[in-house]
Automatic annotation (TrEMBL):
Name of the protein described by the UniProt record: DUF4325 domain-containing protein
Domain of life: Bacteria
Basic and acidic residues bias (residue ranges): 11-21
Ranges where the record places region Disordered: 1-21
Amino acid sequence: MINLEAMTNDGKVHNLAGKERGENARDNFSLDSIDTQEENVTIVIPEHVYAVSSSFFLGMFSNSLKSLGGKEAFLQKYKFDSTPLVLKQVLHGIERWESSNPQA
C-alpha cells in the first residue's frame, strides 16, 4: 500500500499538483522497483485531497504506464482508494498519457 498522505504536509495540502512533485513522489515510493514486482498495490489518496492534477499523476505514474504496457495492465497492478472525484482525475491522467502515447 502507498499512502499519499505523506505528500500532504500533515493534511495541509489538498491539491497534489506539478510534474516535478509527482516525480519526487515516484522516487520516494520507489515505483520503479514496485513496477517490476508481481504484487498489486493500493494507492490511498486521503479524503482531504480534493484534486490530483494530471501533471502530478503523470510525473508519478507515466513510467509505470509505459513499463506495464498501458492502461489495462496499470489498472490491474495499481488500485486507487480515493473519492469518486479524485478517481475521475486519475482516469483523466491516464487518458492524457494514452493520447500522447497512441501506440500503447
